[in-house]
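Components:
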Amino acid sequence: MTKRDTTIYWTGFGVVMALLIVAPLVLPPFWSRFVTEILIWGLLAMSSDVLIGYTGMVSFGHSAFFGLGMYGAAAALLMVAPPNLLLALLFGLTASAAVSAFVAYFSTRLRDIYFAITTLIFSQIFYVIIFTWTEVTGGENGLSFRRPAFGIPGLWTTPFTPETLHWFVLAVVAGSYLILRRIMRSPFGMVLQSIRENEPRTRAIGYAVERYKIVAVMLSGLFAGLSGVLYAIQNRFAAPDFVFFIISGDAVIFNVMGGIGTLVGPIVGAATFLLLREGLGRLFGDQFPYLIPLGFIFIAIIIFMPQGLLGFMRRWLNK
Amino acid sequence: MAAILSFFADFPIELFFIQTLNGIVTGMILALIASGLTLIFGIMDVVNFAHGELFMLGAYVGVIVLSTTGSFWLALLLAALLVGIFGAAMQIVTLRPLLGRDPLTTILATFGMSLILQNYALWQFGPVARKINEPYTGHFNLFYLEYPWYRLMIAGLSAAIIGGFWLFLKHGKFGIWIRATMQDRVMAQAMGIPVPLVHTVAFAIGAAMAAASGVLFGPLVGVNHTMGLDWVLKAFIVVVVGGMGNLGGSIAAAIFISLLEAYASIWVSPAQAVIVSFVVLIFTLLFRPTGLFVPTPK
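Structure:
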């Protein structure tokens, strides 16, 4: 990256961040909540981009990581008397890390379509377990809990307002983006991209491809779990619907729409998808089957714009 | 030891036989769905995510034809025909442009199709399940149950359709083209086989088989817009366990997995019995990723 590119990149980053920081102050409450939600779904899609865009593996199982992050956070918030934010994060991340280690160990032995199907099946296993284990998970009704306070427990806390919640989510998502970007530009990330481009050759050079794939799935699962924790904190409930593979499908749609292999593309994809959905709902009423036109747009993007909306920036964003 | 003995003493042998029968019946339906899926995969490397929705669409066409004409057999025929034509159109519009690209993009495109079809069904027919009446309502006594003849009829009809399909593949001119394209697309093209047409027709046949199984299965559970989801997941498992693109393997795997699930639901709820087939899939992938019912690759 030349010096000029660096300046442009960080200026762009700063402008977008500034816009997102002032968003809850200027937007009406509905839209500011909407932006928060876009960021959370964007983080989920971004985590799945690590696999789709950088390692060349399409995961249809991200709902498991997302859902386990949600239920992990729920466990922490229900068990500890004043609900504790840090504990919720810790529990959610531990749960999703454990699940993603398990899934990664088995599913990375397979490639391409088989990988996609295996991750899908794994997420359905967790869905069935959560759905039927009513005593612990609340079954179909899920769990609801109170939102924890923001701050350092014991020293200083303040309850979340919509604005502080937005800034907290923004900080987590922006931090995750910077961390993932750093990792994808590191030698480790380069190996992942070389697996995407040519797996046999990467193996021949002497990299332990399987180990790299396992770490990639775990990394991806960890950040998916983080987005699950954020969603649980924002909505104060955990439900089995969020472990169902439709959520994984959404993550894949966000990626394809926004542009894979860019990390920011998935967030743009999530924003496009959710805005279109909202717009169609407002134009034609709540009963309108918004997924029909969105499905056609999705297929058209796959056929005519395989790089997605931000595809034209892909090379530049990864410099 | 005592535990094992008491297990066998309490073994519900009658329930076991009933479940064997149930397992075979669902197995045959599943085999019918899965053989379409495996045909589509084998011939063009497409994992058809929308297969469950074609199954559902077939069941809805069946509902409509049945309520207007009253004939179950006409419903079965028309459902297969119309969904087959729809499948051909879908293949031409969404999958043909993706030929030669990464097979993963076809999963995405068919996933998009499945979203569209599922929401279309919800929008058009509403969330309430529709009923298809059984064409034959007789029962026979099986231990303490009145077992409907229709269930056995389903198994027989599925077997007949699969058998007919197999004969067509083995001896029909077009069937031979399909098998040639499966083996080597480029070589088949060089021999003058119209490969794009073969792709479209194979997709249409797969869709028609899914639709037929939808109509056959409709009387057992009722028809609604989410019925495809469960079945497509099961069919995926079957196709992988049986060996991708292997027709005989898929049929064996369909019956194997349905029997296991039927037996498991003697002890646990049917919702949890699904986990058995997941476990079978995971072990297959770990130890024989090419499929359980295929010869060991050399």
